[in-house]
Structure formats: C-alpha cells, structure tokens
Amino acid sequence: MIWFKAIDKALCDKLDEGLNGNGSLMKTLGIEICEIGDDYLVASMPVTPDHHNPIGMLHGGANVVLAETVASYAANFVVDTDKYYCVGQEINANHIKAARKGMVYATARAIHLGKRTSVWEVKIANQAGELTCISRMTAAVVERR
C-alpha cells in the first residue's frame, strides 16, 4: 500500500466539503471518490448538460478538473499531511473519445513518488470502460510551516 495512513470514503467525502465546510468544485461537479485501492484511487463524475461544451459533449476542462482532483487527493494521501501538503504543479490531458451522458471514471496511479514532487497518470473511461481521456499531473510536495 502506498498511502501514508489508512484512508476511506468518509475522509474523501469530508475533503469534498472544503476546509471551511462550504463546499468545493468537487461538490459542484458531482465528483466523488468511489474506489480506494492499495496503489490507486478512482473518482467518478456524472456527464450531464451542466458538464457539456457548447456542442453537447463533456467539456475538456471538466476532464482536467476530474483528473487533477483524483491525482491531488492521491498525492496528499501518500505524504504525512501533518508535515506536508501537495498541490498541482503541472497537468496535461489528451482527449480521446467524447462522452455525452452517463458517468466517467478517473483512475490515478503513481508514476513517481519523490521528496519534492510526485507524478500521477490518470486514465478516464466511460461506463463501457472505453478510454475517453488520459492525463498526467505533477504535484509539488510542500512543507508545512
């Protein structure tokens, strides 16, 4: 297991509410952590007209928000959060296949876990398991002061 300490759905749901409890972009877009593995994290997001671009398919920016969310959560779960926190430093995304309805699922897996950065690959798939987007995010590991 790569996680610094045990994590569960309740912790993820609490984080979705934001530090002040007033919500977050995850709540706005309906992003939820739905699976926690020993070395991966999966988040889901509905594909509704609120998530569409003007031509009726999932907005590419929504894919990026989903990818950064699941990778950022994962990055923070591998460090001692009493001493460090992680933030997105760079992200890219290749949009492979359009999604117009249903759900998409983003799976984050570590490529590199270092002292100052971690790198995460995120594959987003539709309900049929077809790859719709692939992303890579670098997280900066920042010491708390």
Describe the structure.
This protein has 145 residues and is α+β, with helices and mostly antiparallel strands. It is 21% helix and 41% strand. It has a six-stranded antiparallel beta sheet.
Topology:
Elements: H1 9-16, H2 25-29, E1 32-36, E2 40-47, H3 60-77, E3 84-95, E4 102-113, E5 117-126, E6 131-143
Antiparallel strand pairs: 1-2, 2-4, 3-6, 4-5, 5-6
Please tell me what the overall shape is.
globular
| Total DSSP E strands | 6
Tell me the strand percentage band. 35-45%
Q: What order do the helices and strands follow?
A: HHEEHEEEE
Residue share in helix: 10-25%
Distance separating the two termini? 28 Å
Largest sheet: 6 strands, antiparallel
Poorly predicted tracts of residues? none
Strand order of the largest sheet: 1-2-4-5-6-3
Structural class: alpha+beta
Name the average pLDDT: 96
List keywords for this structure.
single chain, about 140 residues, alpha+beta, 3 helices, 6 strands, globular
In short:
With 145 residues, the chain is of the alpha+beta class. 21% of the residues lie in helices and 41% in strands. The chain is globular, with a radius of gyration of 15 Å.
